[in-house]
């Protein structure tokens, strides 16, 4: 069974694909924080701002099979036909919580049969199934990474236990710093300064929040 907090269609707000239309599927559960506020302070990841408990979010629910979930996800992509073809390949981002706890080969295969391009936003501490097209790893504190290569490493900055220099040797195509809690202009300016002096890194902002995109 797949347990999904929410499913929605919007624009990716962060990183290399900022501005790209995507279906978002947020799985419930995480291995670095249980989502309960009373346990935040003693968790490995203590700054998460996402509700990933339960299946009561928009379009959330429990899905018994990969086919059932894939069929449900497909209906969120606009069925715009140009000529005789669907305009744009369906693009889906699995997030959480920690999506690697639930994303598996049967679901990936079911989506590939429907022409999906598949992305994941993961903390990098769990092995991933084959077939994911875009892997974005977001390290948290000193949690050990088992995913050390991919398309994008996006580090929430600053983290005292996760300095950027700890990740520069990893095999990622893109390196991003994303200011923690972007209401803090100080963190944004710190990230800007770090990127300017360490040009391996680029700045990622949560443009969906800045622009008011749902």
Protein described:
The protein has about 210 residues and is of the alpha/beta class. It has a single domain (about 1-210), classed as TIM Barrel (Alpha-Beta Barrel). It has four helices and eleven strands. The chain has helices spanning about 65-75, 105-110, 185-195, 205-210; strands at about 1-10, 20-25, 60-65, 80, 85, 90-95, 115-120, 135, 150-155, 170-180, 200-205. It has a nine-stranded mixed beta sheet. The chain has a two-stranded antiparallel ribbon with strand order 4-5. Helix 1 (about 65-75) packs across helix 2 (about 105-110). The radius of gyration is 17 Å and the shape is globular. The two termini are about 30 Å apart. The mean pLDDT is about 95.
Secondary-structure element pattern, one letter each: EEEHEEEHEEEEHEH
Q: Which strand order do you get reading across the main beta sheet?
A: 3-1-2-6-7-8-9-10-11
Number of helices: 4
According to DSSP, the number of beta strands is 11
Instruction: Report the helical percentage.
Output: 10-25%
Shape descriptor: globular
Question: Which whole number gives the mean pLDDT?
Answer: 93
What oligomerization state is this entry in? single chain
Write the SSE topology:
Blueprint: E1 2-11, E2 21-27, E3 61-63, H1 66-74, E4 81-82, E5 85-86, E6 91-95, H2 105-112, E7 117-122, E8 134-137, E9 149-157, E10 171-179, H3 185-197, E11 202-203, H4 207-211
Parallel strand pairs: 2-6, 6-7, 7-8, 8-9, 9-10, 10-11
Antiparallel strand pairs: 1-2, 1-3, 4-5
Helix pairs in contact: 1-2
């Amino acid at each position: 069974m797949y347990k999904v907090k929410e499913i929605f269609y919007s624009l990716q707000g962060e990183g290399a694909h900022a501005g790209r239309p995507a279906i978002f599927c947020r799985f419930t559960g995480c291995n670095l924080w249980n989502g309960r506020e009373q346990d935040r302070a003693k968790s490995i990841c203590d700054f998460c701002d996402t509700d990933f408990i339960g299946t009561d979010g928009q379009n959330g629910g429990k899905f018994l099979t990969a086919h059932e979930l894939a069929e449900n996800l497909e209906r969120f992509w606009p069925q715009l036909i140009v000529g005789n073809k669907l305009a744009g390949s369906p693009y889906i981002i699995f997030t959480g919580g920690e999506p690697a706890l639930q994303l598996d080969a049967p679901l990936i295969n079911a989506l590939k049969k429907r022409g999906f391009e598949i992305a994941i936003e993961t903390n990098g501490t769990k092995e991933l199934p084959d077939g994911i097209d875009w892997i974005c790893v977001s390290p948290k504190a000193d949690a050990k990474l088992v995913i050390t290569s991919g398309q994008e490493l996006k580090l929430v900055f600053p983290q005292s236990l996760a300095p950027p220099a700890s990740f520069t040797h990893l095999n990622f195509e893109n390196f991003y710093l994303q200011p923690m809690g972007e209401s803090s202009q100080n963190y944004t300016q710190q990230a800007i300064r770090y990127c300017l002096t360490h040009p391996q890194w680029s700045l990622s902002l949560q443009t969906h929040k800045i622009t008011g995109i749902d």
